[in-house]
Amino acid sequence: MSGTILLTGFDKFGPYDRNPAAEIAEALDGQTIGGYSIRGIRLPINFRTFREELHDHLTEINPSIALGLGMDFKDVPHLSVEMEARPIARYGTFQDEEGSSAGTVTLDSNPAVLIIPNREQLEHAIQAMSPYFIASTNAGGHMCETVLRDLITLSEGGKQFLPGFVHVPHLEEQLEQSAALDPHVHSMPFDEQLRRVQQYLEVVIAMCEASE
User: Fold this and answer.
1) Could you count the other beta carbons within 10 Å of the beta carbon of residue 13?
2) Range of the domain at 71
3) Residue 187: C-alpha distances to residues 31, 72, 101, 116, 166 (Å)
4) CATH assignment of the domain containing 183
5) How far is CA 113 from the centre of its chain?
6) How far apart are CA 129 and CA 199, in angstroms?
7) d(C-alpha 94, C-alpha 128), whole Å
């Protein structure tokens, strides 16, 4: 089997001078896992453009698997595999990456909690990959959750592609920076995060092929 994996990660934000999610996506860009080629994309921290860019990449790449990555707001030493995406109606006033303000932006008026189509399989797989992974039902309520909701919706229940989202921990060097938002004490080295995302992709590829 063969196909393409779209892997996205957000740019740095707030007090952080790095975002391991984007760095992992870019590190894996152009690589092949299990016969599947990877396209790694860095999404901007810009509420007015990030969804359009995500949708354009989906149209251009037409992936078999689409996985979003984000840096975890939860203070955990493992990777969090998001199982569901809660409703998000709108964002309030915010400043974008250029420092300009924007008003309320409606993102998703769907009141439903959206569930990833392969949840039961993933939960079993995650148990086998403990303690490096856990199943999570809290994707953050902001840009990461929006990406997951869009991926689930656009996948049409997994018929178009297999959607997913994984949060990675902070890097050790980011623990001091985290104090400006929400102090963290747990971290994971970048090389370890990279290996675990590769491991996760191997599992998802196996699921994708089993459903063919």
Assistant:
1) 13
2) 3-210
3) 26, 10, 32, 27, 15
4) 3.40.630.20
5) 17
6) 9
7) 41
Per-residue tokens: 184: 């963290």
Closest C-alpha to 66, from 47, 86, 41: 41
Domain count of the fold of the chain: 1
Predicted confidence (pLDDT) per residue in 147-192, tens digit: 999 999 999 999 999 999 999 999 999 988 888 888 899 999 999 9
What's at 172, amino acid-wise?
E
Q: Is 108 helix (H, G, I), strand (E, B) or coil?
A: coil
**Nearest-angstrom CA–CA distance, 155 and 174:** 34
Residue 47 C-beta-side C-alpha neighbours within 13 Å: 19
pTM above 0.85, yes or no: yes
Tokens of 142: 């902001």
